[in-house]
Amino acid sequence: MKILIIGDICGSPGRKAAAHFIPLLQKEHSVDLTIANGENAAGGVGITASVFDELLSYNIDIVTSGNHIWDKKEIFNFIDGESRLIRPANYPPGTPGLGYCFFDKDGIRIAIINLAGRAFMPPIDCPFREIDNILEKVKSQADIIIVDFHAEATSEKMALGWYLDGRVSCIVGTHTHIQTSDERILPNGTAYITDLGMVGPWNSVLGVEKDLIIKKFLTGLPVKFNLADGPTVFSAVLLTVNVDTGKAESITRIFKHLS
Ligand code: FE2
């Protein structure tokens, strides 16, 4: 089973890069499932119903998210009825939307789980204890389990990677928009990367116009963020999983420029 997992898609520049590269990669690698983080897909923060539909039109099967999922108010109008868009599972009970979902392909069932970190992030319930609860429920129902851990700190991501080694097929980090070069398969068969990186403006600070962020650091004053324009990058990993064992066979980092 080949699974393409794409980093944070940032605004219209990111959507343009996604539209360009996803069909090429799907064809080249005979991809069975495509997952992308879409929490910044609408204007750089949040996601709208029309932008979500646009992501699906690029053959993205499942959209994960993170702390910015609530930034466009219309999310509350459609997240409850949408099983292909998930938000971090460790929000408190009663939060709208789903924290995990399933995708079926050729008789194989894949569980996709979204979690958010707690280090340097808005307060949220414990991701380590929440994943234990979820795995209790899904492990007998899924052949393959994929986790998107939306978190800031490399230490928290690596710790969760070790905590889940042998219990899930793959855990990828998102949120920092900077791709890390530490992709590997952990000793018990779980593929891991600290951060997938961004799909969005390359000459930017995490997608935002660089001069605005420099001004913010120089003055300490709040600034209104605008998305940068110019060349874009596309960041992802291609994962191969053994469907009999649920263990990862390979994880290959993808980083491409679109000028
Ligand atoms: Fe985020």
Counted by DSSP, the helix tally is 6
Derived from helix and strand composition plus strand pairing, the structural class reads: alpha/beta
CATH architecture: 4-Layer Sandwich
Q: Report the end-to-end length measured between terminal Cα atoms.
A: 31 Å
Task: Give an overview of the whole structure.
It is a single chain. This protein is α/β, with parallel strands linked by helices. It has one domain (2-258): Metallo-dependent phosphatases (Purple Acid Phosphatase, chain A, domain 2), CATH 3.60.21. It has six helices and 15 strands. It has helices at 11-29, 49-57, 75-78, 127-138, 154-164, 210-219, and strands spanning 2-6, 8-9, 33-37, 62-64, 100-105, 108-116, 144-150, 170-174, 184-185, 191-193, 198-201, 204-205, 208-209, 232-241, 248-258. A hairpin with a 5-residue loop joins strand 9 (184-185) and strand 10. The longest helix is centred in the N-terminal third of the chain and has 19 residues, at 11-29. The chain is globular and about 55 Å long. The protein starts with a strand and ends with a strand. The mean pLDDT is 97. Bound molecules: fe (ii) ion (FE2). Fe (ii) ion (FE2) binds next to loops. Fe (ii) ion binds at residues 39, 66-68, 150, 175.
